[in-house]
Amino acid sequence: MVMQYLAECQRLLPSVTEKNPYLKQKVGEAIFPYIRTIVGNEKAPKITGMLIELPIDQIRAYMTNFENLEMRVKQASDLID
């Protein structure tokens, strides 16, 4: 799962810029299945929405490191509990 996540994100990373109007949609589509695996169907949409609103440098950080994604998901989950 981690390798698949990293491969998918690597493909998307060049377009992760502030000038890309589709950035949030594309990143959200890429990370949602993995977030759902971590926290389940109920929290995944809300947490995905929270993570795609982060600054670009933080988005790029969790897209290049699955452990960073897990940490961000857990932080967001704690906020909505």
In summary, what is this structure?
By secondary structure, the protein is mainly alpha-helical.
Topology:
Blueprint: H1 2-12, H2 23-39, H3 44-52, H4 56-63, H5 66-80
Describe this structure in words.
With 81 residues, the chain is mainly α. The protein has a single domain (2-80), classed as c-terminal domain of poly(a) binding protein, CATH 1.10.1900.10. It is 74% helix and 0% strand. The protein is built from 5 helices and no strands. It has helices at residues 2-12, 23-39, 44-52, 56-63, 66-80. Helix 1 runs antiparallel to helix 2 (23-39), helix 2 crosses helix 3 (44-52) and helix 3 (44-52) packs across helix 5.
State the name of the first-level CATH class. Mainly Alpha
In terms of structural class, how would the helical and strand content be classed?
A: mainly alpha
CATH architecture: Orthogonal Bundle
Largest sheet: none
Number of strands: 0
Oligomer category: single chain
The whole-angstrom Rg is 12 Å
CATH superfamily: c-terminal domain of poly(a) binding protein
The percent range for helix content is: over 70%
Strand content: under 5%
- Stated plainly, the CATH topology is called c-terminal domain of poly(a) binding protein
Number of individual domains: 1
What's the end-to-end separation, in Å?
A: 26 Å
Q: Provide mean pLDDT, rounded.
A: 96
Q: What low-confidence regions span 5 or more consecutive residues with pLDDT below 50?
A: none
- Assign an overall shape: globular
Number of helices: 5
Strand-and-helix sequence, N→C? HHHHH
